[in-house]
Design a protein that fits this description.
Elements lengths: L1 H13 L4 E3 L6 E5 L9 H14 L1
Antiparallel strand pairs: 1-2
This protein binds zinc ion.
Length: about 55
């Protein structure tokens, strides 16, 4: 019973991924900082997709 709890605690502290900020609104994105190029948060990414869809 106690073993399960230990695993959960271990996993939560093991990974510390630093996420890049959104270039539009500075909100944290789902992309790690190691990703090159423009990083957008889910909201801005959706808005960009809408804009692209309309311009075509
Ligand atoms: Zn954003």
């Amino acid at each position: 019973m106690s073993g399960k709890t230990d695993v959960d605690a271990d996993r939560s502290g093991a990974q510390e991924t630093v996420y890049a900020d959104c270039v539009h609104c500075a909100e944290p994105t789902e992309y790690p900082e190691s990703v090159k190029g423009v990083t957008l948060c889910p909201v801005c990414e959706w808005q960009e997709a809408q804009r692209t869809a309309c311009s075509g």
